[in-house]
């Protein structure tokens, strides 16, 4: 009887975790759609890079400015900068295109595949699939 109760408990926990993952994916998809439908472009700069957990998950934090307000976003990037983890100062000067929602500027995507010095709107328009 106790074994059956424990099994049901784990099933409930598993269902809750699955629902949280589905909800998180839905929110991220909705935010990305909001950005891509009505975006503006700015420059983002890496401010932190770390590795977390046993699976060596990379975490990249970048800042960007919209109308004199600084926003920050944390991502698990598809491109790794191993040298950033060991010498963070090498990466803190790196600048990249960031697109953000005009309606909700706290929603943003970054393209870390190409470092930049100035904004190139044609590049952004033709490479939206690179933003994460």
Quick take:
The protein is an alpha+beta fold.
Looking at this protein, list some descriptive labels.
alpha+beta, 36% helix, 132 residues, five-stranded antiparallel β-sheet, OB fold (Dihydrolipoamide Acetyltransferase, E2P), 3 helices
Number of strands: 5
Task: State the helix count.
Answer: 3
Question: At the first level of CATH, what is the class?
Answer: Mainly Beta
* Rg from Cα: 19 Å
Order of helices and strands: HEEEHEEH
> How is the quaternary structure best described?
single chain
Helix content: 25-40%
- Strand % is 25-35%
Gap between N and C termini: 48 Å
In the CATH hierarchy, the architecture is Beta Barrel
Question: Main β-sheet: number of strands, strand sense, barrel status?
Answer: 5 strands, antiparallel
Task: Supply the number of structural domains.
Answer: 1
Structural class: alpha+beta
Shape: globular
Strand order of the largest sheet: 3-2-1-4-5
Q: How much is the average pLDDT?
A: 82
CATH topology label: OB fold (Dihydrolipoamide Acetyltransferase, E2P)
Describe it for me?
The protein is an alpha+beta fold. The chain has a single domain (38-130), classed as OB fold (Dihydrolipoamide Acetyltransferase, E2P) (Beta Barrel), CATH 2.40.50. Helices cover 36% and strands 32% of the residues. The chain contains 3 helices and 5 strands; from the N terminus they run αβββαββα. The chain has helices at residues 2-37, 82-86, 121-126; strands at 39-52, 57-66, 69-75, 95-101, 108-111. A hairpin with a 2-residue loop joins strand 2 (57-66) and strand 3. The longest helix has 36 residues, at 2-37.
């Amino acid at each position: 009887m106790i074994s059956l109760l424990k099994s049901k408990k784990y099933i409930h926990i598993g269902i809750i975790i699955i629902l949280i993952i589905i909800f998180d994916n839905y929110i991220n998809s909705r935010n990305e759609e909001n950005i891509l439908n009505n975006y503006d472009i700015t420059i983002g700069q890496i401010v932190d890079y770390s590795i977390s957990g046993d699976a060596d998950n990379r975490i990249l934090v970048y800042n960007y400015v919209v109308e004199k307000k600084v926003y920050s976003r944390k991502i698990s990037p598809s491109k790794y900068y191993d040298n950033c983890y060991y010498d963070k100062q090498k990466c803190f000067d790196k600048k990249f295109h960031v697109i953000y929602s005009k309606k909700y500027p706290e929603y943003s995507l970054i393209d870390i595949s190409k470092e930049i010095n100035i904004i190139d709107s044609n590049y952004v328009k033709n490479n939206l699939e690179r933003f994460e």
